[in-house]
Design goal:
The structure is a homodimer.
Chain A (H helix, E strand, L loop, with lengths): L11 H11 L8 E2 L2 H7 L23 E7 L9 H13 L9 H4 L1 E4 L3 H13 L3 E6 L4 H9 L3 E5 L3 H15 L2 E2 L6 H7 L1 H15 L17 E5 L4 H10 L5 E7 L6 H8 L21 H9 L5 E5 L1 H13 L11 H8 L1 H11 L4 E7 L6 H7 L8
Parallel strand pairs in A: 2-10, 3-4, 3-6, 4-5, 7-8, 7-10, 8-9
Antiparallel strand pairs in A: 1-2
Family (chains A, B): Belongs to the serine/threonine dehydratase family.
Protein name (chains A, B): Tryptophan synthase beta chain-like PALP domain-containing protein
Pfam family, one (chains A, B): PALP
């Protein structure tokens, strides 16, 4: 992957340039609305729902929120990760001397058990570059098979990041492959940010044409007031923040709070990035700590206004609503933003205060939809059935 | 409900008239495409996949099928049933003397534990008519709550049709309410058929504008070659058939075969309608035998070209594909048409022979999406975990 020093600057203009590179390879995913969920977001929580929460005894906030869902679960390989992967590889192919010096034959490598594995495999196959994906031996067979089905070579490792990185180092030594990290690189950040650009245009167009929010008064000719996006390694959140720089659109991040998965929120509070996290939150795409490059955008440049966290139960409740009412399949990581909009009184109070009578048009990023029926079933299994 | 003798004739023109009545009340649901599923439908099954089926040892068919999905899972109340319910009630309200003779106060009644219950409840509330829904005592609490949430009065009965009809008779005696049956009535059939009209227009528009089948050559300026729809009571299938009369579009029906749920197919073979069925197929919307009015359209007028049936395993396999690959939540009844297109060699051979090189543009009706996460999880639970 390109030397970060030679990457485009981390600006909105670079996200626009990234979009023109990746657009031919990715789906222009739809932005959807849902009356039931918008109504629910605009209805105050009950006093009893706040019992046992940090907001117990407070008057529930009365925000007016119109939700716009960017459906990256309908993206190629079922997640936004193809944006960064295609951007990294189109930039790599254009790199001076790379082809001439045998870069293509040496290929690319990454370690991932999740969506980045399939995204890089697909992008590499599309661009005719051999890819090696290092996956923990304990990865689910369906994910291994999916990665292989895109033509990648899968090499197994232990589960800790030390073990995974050691195997990556071996692969690089053996093949000379270039590492394409999942989030902590400017090219990846700029690629993921392209979803923010699309969202801005799509919502503006939908509001202008009167589409999408049946029975709701939307401000004529305007667009989003804010976007809330999930934060794991922070590549997509920080890219989205770049895509909104200078537009007046506020960007917020959402994390699970389980077992300290809210490292970015805690890091912001402490003024220092938290570099390691060990959590088994059901939002399995968000178990990683925020990376160094994303941190410079989120913290140093203050392009993310605030971070919020939600409980496992709130994630499950939001997931149920999306599946049963919106009829969309998303993975748990996708709904932390929606859960914040529905259940986090700090966020809801902010919308009430800033949005007032007119309310906010709030963009929600559904980051991916890769979950098996079995995993879904298990997540909602009655407690007494769990071993 | 209107005396059937006074209903509009069962023709395409009457479906068009029904559409103008119901359009203001319903969602114009999208038609979606999916590259993975279209590719799968256009790929011959493996020889080994046919082992143990009626087609064992045969050369697998090589049809070329482009799939177009009419998403009634995104319809109000999550199913096509609102079309018939709104049509029946708009016609009732317009009936001479109904209002003057106190018809509105007397209200409407039906018995249903499924989507028709919620559909009638919503339509009645929208039109300001009191509704009583007779539901079996053993109905799931969420379905009872959903029906009540639309403002209907729920009255409980036993589970057999005799017990349910007895309670309906009591309600009618007590209140003078008008019965709105779930499928066996011309007004219901004409209402359900409106989805067929929309599908025809939508696919024509999508083909004309080059949308929807990425990488696929579609015949320029044309539309659907055929539609395949689920058949339970047959109201929607026969209405869809009416909507296609004279258009040259073939209409097919699909049923589960489990425990004789394929009554319409068997009835056609025997030349006589089968009037009772007792099946516990997972496609729970398709457990009823085909009704007398639908039968006149399907059998007597031959407006449905053929019926096909699929196994429980084929239904589950198709359901998994829609959930995991298309990222859409549908109920099992929705996918019998897709399962036919993917797995039934009689149907696939027909498409190969009639469609040839050019193939068919095939409309698939996703009839509804009302299923809980728990029910989905249970359906795909490993066998050893089931009690």
């Amino acid at each position: 992957m390109a030397d970060p020093a030679k990457c485009p600057p981390l600006t909105r203009a670079s996200v626009v340039a990234a979009h023109s590179l990746v657009k031919p390879y990715i789906h222009y995913t739809p932005v959807l609305t849902n009356t039931t969920l918008t109504t629910l977001a605009s209805t105050p929580q009950s006093v009893s729902a706040l019992e046992g929460t940090p907001w117990a005894g407070q008057e529930p906030a009365k925000p007016k929120i119109r939700l716009w869902f960017k459906c990256e679960n309908l993206q190629k390989v079922g997640a936004f990760k193809v944006r960064g992967a295609f951007h990294a590889l189109t930039r790599l192919v254009a790199e001076e001397g790379w082809e001439e010096q045998g870069g293509r034959e040496r290929g690319v490598v990454t370690h991932s058990s999740g969506n980045h594995a399939q995204a890089l495999a697909l992008a590499a196959r599309t661009m005719g570059i051999p890819a090696t994906i290092v996956m923990p031996r304990i990865s689910t067979p369906s994910k291994i098979a999916a990665t292989q089905s895109y033509g990648a070579r899968v090499v197994f490792s232990g589960s800790t990041s030390t073990e995974r990185e050691a195997v990556v180092a071996d692969v690089i030594k053996e093949t000379g492959a270039r590492l394409v990290p999942p989030y902590d690189h400017p090219d990846i950040i700029l690629g993921q940010g392209t979803l923010g650009l699309e969202m801005q245009t799509q919502v503006e167009e939908m509001i202008a044409s009167g589409q999408g929010q049946a029975g709701e008064k939307t401000k004529k000719g305007k667009g989003l007031d804010a976007i809330i996006a999930p934060c794991g390694g922070g590549g997509m959140l920080s890219g989205t923040a770049l895509s909104c720089e200078g537009t007046g659109i506020s960007v917020f991040g959402a994390e699970p709070e389980f077992q300290g998965a809210d490292d970015c929120k805690r890091g912001l509070a402490a003024g220092k990035r938290i570099e390691s996290v060990s959590t088994l939150t059901i939002a399995d795409g968000l178990r990683t700590p925020v990376g160094a490059y994303p941190w410079t955008i989120i913290h140093d440049r203050k392009l993310v206004r605030a971070m919020y966290s939600v409980t496992e139960e709130q994630i499950k409740a939001a997931l149920r609503l999306v599946l049963e009412r919106m009829k969309m399949v998303v993975e748990p990581s996708s709904v932390v933003g929606l859960a914040t909009a529905l259940y986090n009184e700090d966020f809801r109070r902010l919308v009430e205060q800033e949005g007032g009578e007119q309310g906010w048009d709030l963009g929600i990023v559904f980051s991916g939809g890769n979950i098996s029926i079995e995993a879904l079933g298990k997540m909602f299994e009655p407690a007494e059935k769990k071993a």
